[in-house]
Amino acid sequence: MTDVPRIRTGESAEIEVVVPTIRSLENLEAWRKLLEGVHVIVVQDGDPDTPIEVPQGLNVTVYTRRDVERLLGERSWVISRRDSGCRCFGFLVATAPYVYTLDDDCLPPAASDPIQLHLANLRSPAHPDYFNTLFDLEFVRGYPHALRSGHRTAISHGLWFEHPDLDAITQSENPDLRVIAEVPIVQTVPRGVPYSMCGMNLAFDRQLVGPSLYFGLMGEGQPWGRYDDLWAGWCSKVICDHLGYGVKTGRPYVVHRKASDWRANLEREEAGMRWATRLFEFFRDVTFEPGLDDVGDCYLYLAGQVERALVELDPYFGRLAEAMRVWVELWRELAHVSSESDRES
After folding, report:
1. Cα 12–16–20 angle (5° rounding)?
2. Taking a C-beta distance cutoff of 8 angstroms, is the pair 75, 316 a contact?
């Protein structure tokens, strides 16, 4: 590419799809009917001189590392190399109110449309204040009527058929584990409860939580990998809890055909496994000043807490805190976020 265009099919497009990849994207052919009128942003990791193939006739823009460096300049270091966290560059250049991000080895199930199901999740209220044993089907007896109007949904976290999202040790212990049936429910993750967010099948509201969906500083040159989406999930969840937004998980499912090699994953995950308990304690105990009501300001405040509390764990967290600050700068300079009036028009 010679420039960094922002392309959508029509001003009414509500969602864009972001896919990180190092390979050609034959999987998009299976999504063709579902992608009518949808702009696909591909973030190509690895060698920018290695061309990737995409199916003809789809509205796809491919960004390479050269585009990242041209647009972000000296701040391009905050976009991970050799890690799926590179996808967050796509969040910056997106223009639609909602983003759906999926991995390059995922296919749509035969009987449902994940894009529309994610949109339905994001457009309907979440209920993080009281756990509903009927999930999002209907309110169970005893659910306080004063709480039933719910909260705005910021994140819709989907699941997977076939290969589930496992860490290396669990995968090695359960090599034949497969998901063969959908559990047809959506539930709200309760307030104050962390969860493992996977970027393989994920949608979010850019206006509500965009600045908090930074997929960390991972991969090449960093002490860990495969925690990019987990980090973004932990950060965005505590901010959603503070700001009063909801996070949903469950449907929609996608078909995850490929399982990565657990031995290679073990090496990349080793630091995260060592740090896991301390990170859990950090996010469990994190608090925000009462007056913070902007998601970007919350993320900057969180970066300060990361720097103060976690550098003793490893100096890396000082670099990560600085990357978090730079990410908010970039978001505020570059990211187009629609207003409520834009959505209603």
Report:
1. 165
2. no
In a domain, 233, yes or no: yes
Helices (H), ranges, 124-186: 168-173
Would you say 202 and 159 are in contact if contact means Cβ atoms under 8 Å apart? no
In a domain, 212, yes or no: yes
Q: Quote the domain boundaries for residue 325.
A: 104-344
55 cis-preceded (ω within 30 degrees of 0): no
- Distance, in Å, from the CA atom of 19 to the CA atom of 16, rounded to the nearest integer, reads 10
Whether the Cβ atoms of residue 115 and residue 32 lie closer than 8 Å to each other:
no
The answer to whether the beta carbons of residues 115 and 37 sit under 8 Å apart is no
Residue 335 lies in a domain: yes
Q: What is the DSSP letter of 179?
A: B
Fill in the amino acid letter for 344.
E
Lowest mean pLDDT among 30-34, 41-45, 105-109, 173-177: 173-177
- The letter for the amino acid at 102 is L
Report the number of distinct structural domains present in the chain.
1
Confidence of residue 338 (pLDDT cuts 50, 70, 90): low
3-state SS, residue 156: strand
Decide: 21 and 44 in contact? Cβ < 8 Å: yes
Work out the angle at residue 327's Cα, subtended by the Cα atoms of residues 325 and 331, and round it to the nearest 5 degrees: 120
46: confidence class by pLDDT, cuts 50, 70, 90: confident
Cβ atoms within 10 A of the Cβ of 173, count? 10
Q: HSE of 153 in the Cβ direction (CA atoms, 13 Å)?
A: 26
